[in-house]
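Whether sequence alone determines local backbone shape is best considered at the level of individual chains. When preparing material for the folding task, we compiled for one chain both its residues and its backbone structure tokens. The sequence in question and its structure tokens are set out directly beneath this paragraph.
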Amino acid sequence: MHLALSPRAQRLATPVGLFHVESYRLGMPHLSLGSLSESWLLKELGHRHWLLLAAMAGREVPDFRDAGGAPVYAAFRALSLADVDLGAFREHDGLLVASTIRRISRSQFVSSHTLRRNGSEAGQVELCSVFVTRRQPGRNRSIARIALDGFGPIGDLAAPCITATLADAIATGRRLRQEGFSRDAAGTGPRLVINPCPAKDFNGADFLYFVSIQAFVDRAEWEMLGADAGLATTTARDIVYHGNIEIGDRVVVELCGCARRTLELRHWYRIHREADAAPLADVLTRRRLRARPA
């Protein structure tokens, strides 16, 4: 089984998935103001998730097709960053990422990524994907879930992953209540309208890139919550994805809940299409605020 990643990588097949380790020496491409770049990290882990799916299926590259030959893609259903310390990372630090992937249903897969900074634990990231295809060529609103074979057995469902339960919890409001927010607040908060840029916000498959949702929230945070919020660093973030858009669709980023503590900011943003209010994502975030000078 071949995994087309860096020669520094180590990999190990398991009965229901794959284990993979890779290291990085951090420089400007990996960093943002005061922290490890969350956008870079999610792009890298999303790419690794895609390559691990290929390796899990015994493929050289992740070129998946349906019975009619149409491309099949792994669309993210949810992601979770837990106990991350992005603000601790600096230039020249060593980052080691240990990844596993497993199948949790016929169409869903979960990858888990443990971060270590210079040998010390620095958080956990989970990504949950489903296979999708377009029912109408070129139409992102026509995407539909599809099941593929050739990935081995389904993993242990007695211990469900964070991201699989997260999407269900958001749907029922349980996760929102845990953070102190109410579903009744949706539709009443301040809004930012964004016109996604095809060259920046869409990926090579012509979908709105999953990382763009996080970037939209960061932009809204900067616009709505002040300079101290915009300079904060992420310690936890949960995103549940509901849909996609076409090139030219505008999106609305709505602040549905916000709470501040001494050095912590928590907020819930909901994102939907402007034209028809179709939901695109719910984003729950915890950020560490910088201490104010005495």
About this structure: The first helix runs from residue 38 to 56.
